[in-house]
Design brief:
The protein is mainly alpha-helical. Helix content is 81%, strand content 0%. It contains 4 helices and no strands. The longest helix has 36 residues, at 43-78.
Length: 121
């Protein structure tokens, strides 16, 4: 994996460690795919890239889980999750109620259709 100097920008500076790791994983996947599809494969390079990729993906998953855990804890601390869950629950109940009314109306309509007897000539 060669080194290429990039100009520093505000976006690069503000990029989180998780995002930079995610970008690095994407780049290594591309390099690994390129190395595997070359006519003259270098198994040593493929092995190094594969091992690095597995370790980086594992670390990335750990960081993402940690971030999700911290976010959930922050929501609990601020009391956001209970309010939002209550609003979402009410919304689901309202939709379920509307569907049940519509479906029960259709159900009774089809039952009436079953009761209709054909006219015999």
């Amino acid at each position: 994996m060669g080194y290429s100097a990039k100009e520093s920008s505000v976006v690069d500076f503000c990029e989180s460690k998780t995002e930079s790791l995610s970008n690095w994983v994407r780049q290594v996947k591309n390099k690994s795919l390129t190395a595997k599809t070359k006519r003259k494969r270098d198994l040593r390079v493929i092995a190094i890239l594969s091992h690095s990729l597995v370790r980086a993906e594992t670390e990335l998953v750990m960081k993402q889980r940690e971030r999700a855990r911290k976010w959930a804890q922050m929501q609990v601390d601020l009391g956001l999750s209970n309010k939002e869950e209550e609003i979402a629950r009410r919304h689901r109940e309202k939709i379920d109620y509307l569907w049940k009314n519509d479906l029960s109306g259709l159900d009774s309509f089809f039952k009436e259709l079953d009761n209709v007897k054909p006219i015999l000539k």
